[in-house]
Amino acid sequence: MADAEAERVRTAYERRARLGLDARYDYWQPANLFIYQARERAVLKLLREANLLPLDGRRILDVGCGDGAVLRDMVRYGAEPSLLAGIDLLPDRVERARELTPGAVINAADARQIAFEDASFDIVLGFTLLSSVVEEQARRAVVAEMVRVTKPGGVLLIYDFWINPFNRTVRPLRRDHLRKLFPGREIDFVSTTLAPPILRPLVKLPGGWFACSVMDVLRFLRTHYVAAVHI
Q1: Whole-model pTM?
Q2: DSSP letter string, 207-230
Q3: What is the 3-state secondary structure (H, E, C) of 122-163?
Q4: How far is residue 213 CA from its own chain's centroid?
């Protein structure tokens, strides 16, 4: 990632933390619970279809791992903590991930330069990673590194959004753009995440969870996808 782009990403996430906006994504908030459970179903569907479950014996890397929450999900799916790794730009997030994910190897690093050997991992994760990298050359450099460290026959799992008009610090990643980033690769998509501007107020109402479940059936109201890129 170009130095200017890395600094821009770092500044955006540090500002969010400083303003206390990270709490907006706490798991136990009703809207987030709805989002995370839907995302988990999509992730498990793709892992199951790729014949990767259970995850015992699989080496897994999370690029842009934050506090390690997705890595800990992998443990619930059978992964061994000693086979998990993560990198993140922000040292405070790395420290928190290490505290919460004992046994995993988690380091502060730029995703443009992943300090692992070629073909090291069965699964490489990138959750709302590529949309955070708005400069195209930097985005392609991150993708190249993710591909490099994935074993032949392995999978990249990408969770990202194709539309987000309210956040000017990110660049949405449409499906056709993702395909261009991985030319010639087989990619399976599962749409997920009911549009948060609809979900957040609706889920708080009496019967809101049911109403959100009904609306979530309408795929055009989903703003994100999980993609399995086969290497």
Answers
A1: 0.91
A2: THHHHHHHHTT-GGGEEEEEEEEE
A3: EEEEEECCHHHCCCHHHHHHHHHHHHHCEEEEEEEEEEEECC
A4: 23
Does the pLDDT at position 55 exceed 60?
yes
Write the DSSP symbol of residue 25: G
What dihedral do alpha carbons 49, 54, 57, 58 form, nearest 10°? 40
In the numeric block, which tokens belong to residue 8?
């821009």
- Residue among 63, 24, 34 nearest 145 (CA): 63
Average pLDDT over residues 159-181: 91
Q: Is the preceding peptide bond at 91 cis, omega within 30 degrees of 0?
A: no
Residue 175 neighbours by CB under 8 Å, 6+ apart: 162, 189, 225, 227
Sketch out the chain's domains with CATH numbers: 3-28+54-188 (3.40.50.150)
Mean pLDDT of 30-45: 96
Burial (CB count within 10 angstroms: exposed 0-12, middle 13-18, buried 19+), residue 218: exposed
Beta-carbon contacts of 143 under 8 Å, excluding residues fewer than 6 positions away, are: 130, 181, 182
d(CA 203, CA 200): 6
- Tokens describing residue 152: 């032949």
